[in-house]
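Minutes, project check-in

Agenda point 3 was the complex the collaborators sent over. CS summarized: two entities, 570 residues total, and the question is how they sit relative to each other. Sequences were read into the notes so everyone works from the same version.
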Amino acid sequence: MAFPLPFEKLVVALGRLPGMGPKSARRVAFYLLGCPVGEVEELADLMRSMRQELRYCRQCFFLTWQSDICHICADPGRERSQLLVVADPKDVVTLESAKVFKGLYHVLGGVYSPLQQRGIEQLRVKELLQRLKTETIVELIFALPPSVEGEATRSLILQQGGSTPFKVSQLAVGLPVGSDIEYIDQLTLGQAIRARVPLL
Amino acid sequence: MFIESIELNAFRNFTQFSKEFRDGLVLLTGPNGVGKTNVLEGISFLARGRMLQEALEYRHVVKWGERHSRLAAIFTNSRSFSTQVAVELGLAGVEKVLLNGKPVGRLSALLGKVPLLYLGPEDIALFSGSPRLRRKFLDTVLSQWDPEYLYALVRYQRARRQRTLALAQSPLTARSFVPTLINEGFVLTCKRLAFVADIRTAFDELIKDLLMLKDAPVLEYKSAVQSNLAEAGPGFDTYAQACERSFEQASVGLMESGPHRDDLRLRILDGRSFRDTASQGELRAAAVALKLAELLWVEHKAGEKAIVMIDEALHELESARQFKVLAWVARERQVLWAGTQAPEALQRLTHQGQACQTIALTHVTPVAAS
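CS then shared the predicted structure for the full assembly.
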C-alpha cells in the first residue's frame, strides 16, 4: 500500500542515512508522525544548525564550532610533537575517550579506495604533508583502519612524504584489555602471539 | 564424523526435505533434476559454510517464490558427540547461524568444525584443466582449515581488485597496494608450499597404487614469483625482492607474479610434465589421488574421519579403479554417493557384505486441480 507522498519522501530521505534500511526508515517516520510538532521542529532546527554552524578545523580537519580551529588544536596543553592520523572525525572522538593520547590529530576524511571511487586527491593528504614540513613533529602515529585500504593510504602517505626525519608508528593489534583468552578468535590470538611484548 | 540427519526448508528445489542417514555407505538416487546435488549442497553449506557452486546467489538458493530458507543438520563424531548446525537464509544473505541452538554470528564460525570431502565433476579435471582449478583447490582446502590463510586470501584478492582499478588512474598510487600484495602473497605461498609438502607422501602412495606405477610423478608447487622456492618456507626478503622485480617489469595493466599465477604440477623423473605424457585416464586418476590425499590431510587436521560426498566424479574412471577408490574411502567413513543409479563399484561392495542405505528421491507430483 502506498503512503501519502510527504511520508514516502521522508522514508526515502531517511533510508539514505547510514545503517538505515527501508523498514527502520519507515519506523522512524511513523515515530516522527506521532511526535508533538514542537519536538519535530526542534529536531529539524538542530539538524539545520549543526549543518550550518559546524565546520572542519583549518588545521586538523576535526569538527569545530564558532572558530576556525578546533578545541584540540587550540589547547596549549597538547603535545605538539606527536601527530596521530585518523580516517574520520568519529575516530578522534573514540580516541579522545581513552584519555591517553595528548598530542594532535590529522583527519584524512576517509581512506584511499579506487573500488569506492575515493581517490587520494579527495583525502587531506596534501594538507598532512604540509603539516609534516612546517610543524615540529617528532612522532607520526597511524590509526587508520587495519584494512587493505587503510594500509594503502598509509603506504601512499609515506611514499609521498619522502624521507621522514621523525619516528613513524601505528597502533598495536592484539588482545582486548580484560578479555579471556578462551573467547578470542584464532586470528587475533595469532596476531597477539606474533606481536608479543618482552617482559624481561 | 557422520551426518545423522538433515532438514531443508524452502531450499533450492525442496519445499521441505528431511532425512536421517546411517553411518557408512549411502546412495542418493533418483532421476535427473530431482535434487540429489541439492542435498549435497545443503550438507556442504551446513558443514563448511559454503555452497558447492560458490557463485550461486542467495536469491537462487532460497526456493523460488519464498523469502527465507532454513537448513539444519546433526553431525556426530567418533565419540558419539553430536553437533547441531542450523542456518537461516534470506534473499540477500545469511540471517542466522546457530551451533547447538546458540547464535554464532557469521558463517565463518562453521569453518574447521566438520571434516568433509566433496568429489565432484570439476575435481576429476584437476590435472587436465586450467591452473585456475588447481589454485581453487588449494584455496578451498586451506581456507577451510586455516583462518590465517582465509584472512590473507581475502586481503590479497581485495588488494588485487583495488590495484587493478588504481592502475587505470595512476600507476604511482597503485603502488600503494604492493606492500599488502607482497605480505599476503608471502603468507599464501608459504602455506601452500607447506600443504604440498604435507600431502606429498600420501599422494605418492595413492597415485602409485591407482596407476600401478613403480615411480610416481612428483607433486610440485610452482611459484610464478620465484621458480626455486624452498619448501621449508622461502625467506621473506628474497620473496619480496622477487615480487618487487616482477612489479617493476610488468607493464601497466599486466598481471604481476603472485599466488594468483602459481600452479600445482606433476613432474616425472626425466623432468617432463606428467600432463604432457599421461593419458586422460591417468590424469583423472591423478586428480582422484590428489583429492584422497586432501582427505587424509583434512582428517589429520580434524582428528576425525571425514564425510565423503561423491557426485558424478568417478564415472569416467575405469571400473577397477572406481571400485578401488570407493572401497578405500568407504573404510570407516560415511560416503554419500549421488547418482541416477547404483554404480557397479557400489554394487560390488554391497555384494561383499558392506551395508548401504538407499535414499530414493522422486519428483514431487503436482496436485491435480479438482
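Noted in discussion: Residues 42 and 104 of chain A are 34 Å apart (CA to CA).
Follow-up: revisit at the next meeting once the mutant set is ready.
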